[in-house]
Design a protein that fits this description.
There is one protein chain. This protein is an alpha/beta fold. Helices cover about 40% and strands about 15% of the residues. The protein contains 13 helices and twelve strands. The strands form three sheets. Strands 7, 8, 9, 10, 11 and 12 form a six-stranded mixed β-sheet that branches. A four-stranded parallel β-sheet has the order 2-1-5-6, covered by helices on one side. Strands 3-4 form a two-stranded antiparallel sheet. α1 links the parallel β1 and β2. The chain is globular and about 60 Å long.
Length: about 325
């Protein structure tokens, strides 16, 4: 095996995908517990683990997270000994969300007694689609492949622009994107931008701002044409386990989206919640959902399902 030009550790799934999309998979020597794409990275040492039970209900997870943060504790644990053993040149982490992955503070704490050479810590903070492109540039610069970063961004933008152009002139359904089920949270950050690009009218959450809490009464009052369920960190089977929390709400069956069969279960963990190269796939999924029969990028069944079909299959 060739000796890598730089020893790289990624502590957030989207950054791992960026490093690999830049052609530097062989430089990766460590990952977070959530880094699982491309599949080859699963053979790398896991350097983080959650301090909570991630198999609980969404309410139980939310309660555990809030308790840890209230006590001033991190949500994740970094394996300091393993990190030092890898002796990285570059560590990619994030300081956008204390809940999503190991934070900049976690990494700095892990390195507080580090001796020897300097380590380049690249901390990502993607609040919007533009920020996601900037983060790709920053990772590429740290890996000495700025031209590759610019080329990757150009390809992704062109791909997404093509989807947006095809959506122009189509009917614009109103859309509620639910990023957490209990308690209810709308999708913010880059998601409102993706909805608009896919030819929808985003009802909750604001582009460039953190995902806001919401109430069931707000959803009922807005009565969206489409409801997309994309909880952070959940795949589709996990979402289906949580759906009774929504279907049992008063007035669920009277919602326009429910009556029209336009409630969709998605794999938010693999797509919408990762601000990296697969934002292009996320936009394609939204186009398939918002404009039935108009688009077929091949994501149905793997990235999304109509809730009624998913329930029948189960």
């Amino acid at each position: 095996m060739p000796v890598p030009s730089k020893r790289v550790v990624s502590l957030i799934a989207s950054a791992t995908e960026i490093v690999c999309a830049l052609g530097k998979r062989d430089w990766l020597l460590g990952r977070s517990h959530e880094c699982d794409y491309p599949r080859s990275v699963e053979s790398l040492p896991r350097l983080t683990e959650p301090k909570l039970d991630v198999h609980g209900t969404s309410l139980e997870i939310d309660t555990q997270v809030k308790t840890l943060l209230k006590e001033g504790l991190s949500v994740y644990r970094v394996d300091v000994d393993l990190l030092r053993g890898i002796d990285p040149d570059v560590i990619v982490t994030q300081d956008q969300c204390e809940v999503c992955a190991a934070s900049l503070a976690d990494v700095e704490a892990a390195l507080c007694d580090w001796t020897g050479r300097d380590v380049d810590i690249v901390s990502l903070r993607p609040d919007s689609l533009a920020d996601a492109w900037t983060d790709i540039e920053r990772v590429a610069a740290a890996l000495d492949c700025a031209e590759d970063g610019a080329a990757l961004i150009a390809v992704l933008k062109a791909r997404m622009r093509g989807v947006t152009q095809r959506c122009a002139g189509l009917p614009k359904p109103t859309v509620a994107c639910i990023e957490w089920i209990d308690p209810l949270m709308a999708a913010g950050n880059w998601m409102p931008e993706l909805v608009e690009m896919a030819g929808g009218v985003n009802l909750f959450g604001e582009a460039g701002k953190h995902s806001p809490w919401m109430t069931w009464e707000q959803i009922r009052a807005a009565d969206p044409d489409v409801i997309a369920i994309l909880p952070c960190g959940f795949d589709m089977p996990r979402v289906l386990e949580e759906m009774p929390l929504l279907t049992g709400k008063p007035g669920w069956t009277s919602l326009k989206a429910v009556r029209a069969g336009r409630v969709y279960v998605t794999d938010g963990n693999q797509y919408f919640n990762r601000p990296g190269p697969r934002l292009a796939e996320s936009l394609e999924i939204l186009a398939e959902i918002l404009h039935p029969g108009r688009f077929d990028f091949g994501h149905k069944g793997s990235g999304w399902m109509r809730f009624e079909n998913a329930r029948e299959a189960a």
